[in-house]
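Go through this:
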Amino acid sequence: MPTFQLSHLARELGLVLKGGDLVVSGLNTLEEAGPRDLSFLANPKYARFLGSTKAAAVIVDAEHAKEVERALISEYPYRDFGRALALFARGEGAFSGISPLAFIHPEARLGDDCTVYPFVFIGQRAELGAGCTVFPGVYIGEDCLLGPRCVLYPNAVLMSAVKLGKECVIQPGAVLGAEGFGFTRTENGIQKIPQAGSVTLGDRVEIGANSAVDRGVLGPSRVGDDSKLDNLVQVGHNVSMGRRNLVVALTGIAGSVSIGDGNTFAGQAGISGHIRVGDNTVIGPRSGVAHDVPDNFQGGGSPLMDKMTFLRHLSLTPKLGELYKSVKRLEREVKELRNAGKSSAAL
């Protein structure tokens, strides 16, 4: 791992250095950091560790900088920790060039400085832009187009005619362009509907491990620029997703959903087919979305409800047992009062 002067990191990240300069050789948490490590404070609940950390310096906001001897003062500590980590991080793999153990169709075209590991398959008329890296076990089908500097990690699959913009990252085991779930019931059983479209990703899109983006029925399924999909995400056929979306693990998006820009789907959210999600929404974990969602909406639950209603439901749910007992007690009391009233009337 490389080493850096704190002053160099401050210049690279545009931060203010408080305290004396020295060399750091790694990054770690406040609790685990040693005297040559850089650490960070992004969540105030961990501020209690500032007094005891052995870190050489800490990336912190101005409010907490006075609690440590050396600091890189940041308005956004977590973001700048990520930027620092990118400087220290060691890239995956050490191979370079084109392995003779890869199969590359004679009609495929590779740009300059591509790296193709052993046991890669690149099909007919596929084109890879300059600087792409393709790890072992990757399948790139016929007519695929990859922009410059894309990275496909082991066992990623691009079925035919998938298109990637520049600097896309496809994590291990992800599948782009498999057939969507196209079936219909008939009097003769279940009939398959062929999926003849494709998948198109914009620039700097990342697809997590073992996630899937299905090909469209006719046109492409789309994921827009700078969108990031976590592991184990399912995107159905003919989904159109805009830019800068974050889709967290185990989210399922059914076919023909239209999604705008800047949305966040928390873990295990489920989005029904043929609806529209606007821009800048936040959909909470395990939400069930069965209707259109307007711009700037925040909420959760199944069925989906606005944030305040959802929070009220969360606070009331643990009290349902107590409420049930209270209702049963009141029912008994009402019954006793009615019986007493009938007895009095009889007299």
User: Anything to note?
Assistant: Residues 320-346 form the longest helix (27 residues). The domain at 4-88 is CATH 3.40.1390.10 (Udp-n-acetylmuramoylalanyl-d-glutamate--2,6- Diaminopimelate Ligase; Chain: A, domain 1). The chain has a mean pLDDT of 96.
